[in-house]
Design goal:
Chain B: Its EC number is 2.7.1.35. The structure is a homodimer. Chain A is built from nine helices and twelve strands. The first copy, chain A, has a ten-stranded mixed sheet, with helices on both faces. In chain A, strands 6-7 form a two-stranded antiparallel ribbon. The radius of gyration of chain A is 19 Å and the shape is globular. The first copy, chain A, starts with a strand and ends with a strand. The interface between A and B is large, with 38 and 37 residues.
């Protein structure tokens, strides 16, 4: 498999977020991963302390220029995630547009990181950039419920709302949308959350078809960082292998997440000791230890196809 | 295995040098790799063009401070390679000394990159830093012949010279030395180069013993970049698994290099014939081409009193152990 991904995300010295979360799993699955580190921090910002440096939009452009001058700017995928700077994000969009001209089949996988649980955790001025510039050039997006609502201006209280929001997102650009988590009530009870996916395709005869799936995902009582980055990377991988079967791609992706998270929470509790809540360092994803699950995830949930 | 490595090397967007060369293989082998990127370049400097940014010694220190403030600065290994800046290198040494105070069992694996084929390709002023500050705190070093000669001030024209140079390097600090390549004549002819290794250990009774090994390594007619970085990382991994068996650690390490390089040169040429040849020749030992690390052993023992080597198996890689009667 000769598949080259350009991933533009954070780098942390220690731990698994951004490029640290995305690269190893994709490489394990045989993807060539070129990575531009948008920042270099000691660790993610959920620790007591963090220190490091950020890449400016100009520096990003300089790196891209280096790639272009060597005429090695052909990519099959671009992957982006958490960004805090509008000029940086706009430079990313410019680069993607140029890369799409170099390869019209390029697939841009975008996690439109804006916030969660009702509030934004990036600067407000990123919102119009995502809405007007980023999402329109994205092919696959992985918003959570808050981000999906924010981007479309429509609230989700029922599955029907979610389907309409995903259709609105399709209309903005991406043919594949996965709402990674929502507070819709799960059929399996309150220890589960609901995720949904929608993939729009054009049949050979020109007519359009949309496959929609719903996942009941087991909740874990802990705050993980980097899981969204891993999710987007694995969705890239599994939609690559199942481009016309969102159900299968989602089952694989959510199953990988399950294995990594289970391994992580078990180890975290072991480190923290009985009756204590694990700390952020203890909750770092057990990525390296999950290599076998990443390579060949045992399916642990069945996605339901919904109309 | 809970083993944490701090690797302070370059990052390239595209390609495999520095941390890009070292991290993935170590992670695949189950090591936790914390990586500080000393630079971020578009690609290595052997391409027609390259662009990017470098990390200053201060910025390095800031990153380390972040790790320390969170009290997560316990490492089992530190790994360093190509550096161009003396203040950066000195900051690296300071950090390593502090990490060794936090964990006295820390093993510092150092590729003392100075040059090759008779000339330096880093700034001259790095030489005294390596000689006086870096190598003394290193536990495992992977110099090439030029670097080994430069650091010790002694030339290598015979295997005996090489053994003496490795002993001089031991005296400077590191208990494990691998001269990754030399122009000593190979027993297998001019399509092979000679590598040597030496590991000094203290027995339970306090006496010292040195295991020395020699590898005849198949040459490839191409210039690869990043192979030294991969070598140092894999030597870290295999000495971790075989801390008292340099012969085995070297066989594993040189074998990985062989597989990666063969696959690379085949792909670069766009042909499969090389791989077929090796698959056939290696079949004798049940060697499966394409796998990362399989035992590929032919043990040969030489004592000081018997110059004849006893060869057990014919294979691509020959490893000779020289047991010395005295240390």
């Amino acid at each position: 498999m000769e598949c080259r991904v350009l991933s533009i995300q954070s780098h942390v010295v220690r731990g698994y977020v951004g490029n640290k979360s995305a690269s190893f799993p994709l490489q394990v699955l045989g993807f060539e991963v070129d990575s531009i580190n948008s920042v270099q921090f000691s660790n993610h910002t959920g620790y007591s302390h963090w220190k490091g440096q950020v890449l400016t939009a100009d520096e990003l452009h300089v790196l891209y220029e280096g790639i272009k001058l060597n005429k090695v700017h052909q990519y099959d995928y671009v992957l982006t995630g958490y960004t805090r700077d509008t000029s940086f994000l706009e430079m990313v969009v410019d680069i993607i547009q140029e890369l799409k001209r170099a390869n019209p089949n390029l697939v841009y996988v975008c996690d439109p990181v804006l916030g969660d649980h009702g509030s934004m955790y990036v600067p407000q001025n990123l919102y119009p950039v995502y809405k007007n510039k980023v999402v329109p050039v994205a092919d696959i997006i992985t918003p959570n419920q808050f981000e999906a609502e924010l981007l479309t201006g429509k609230n989700i209280t029922t599955e029907k709302d979610a389907v309409e929001v995903m259709d609105l997102l399709h209309a903005m650009g991406p043919d594949t949308v996965v709402i990674t988590s929502s507070d819709l009530p799960s059929r399996l009870g309150d220890r589960f959350l609901v995720s949904l996916g929608s993939q729009r395709k054009v049949r050979p005869d020109g007519s359009r078809t949309t496959q929609r799936v719903r996942m009941e995902v087991h909740k874990v009582d802990a705050v993980f960082v980097g899981t969204g980055d891993l999710f987007a990377a694995m969705l890239l991988a599994w939609t690559h292998h199942y481009p016309d079967d969102l159900k299968m791609a989602c089952e694989k992706t959510f199953s990988v997440m399950h294995h990594v998270i289970q391994r992580t929470i078990s180890y975290a509790h072991e480190l923290a000791g009985p009756g204590r809540r694990p700390s952020p360092p203890q909750l770092e994803l057990r990525m390296v230890q999950s290599k076998a699950d990443i390579e060949d995830p045992a399916i642990v949930l069945e996605a339901t196809v919904i109309s």
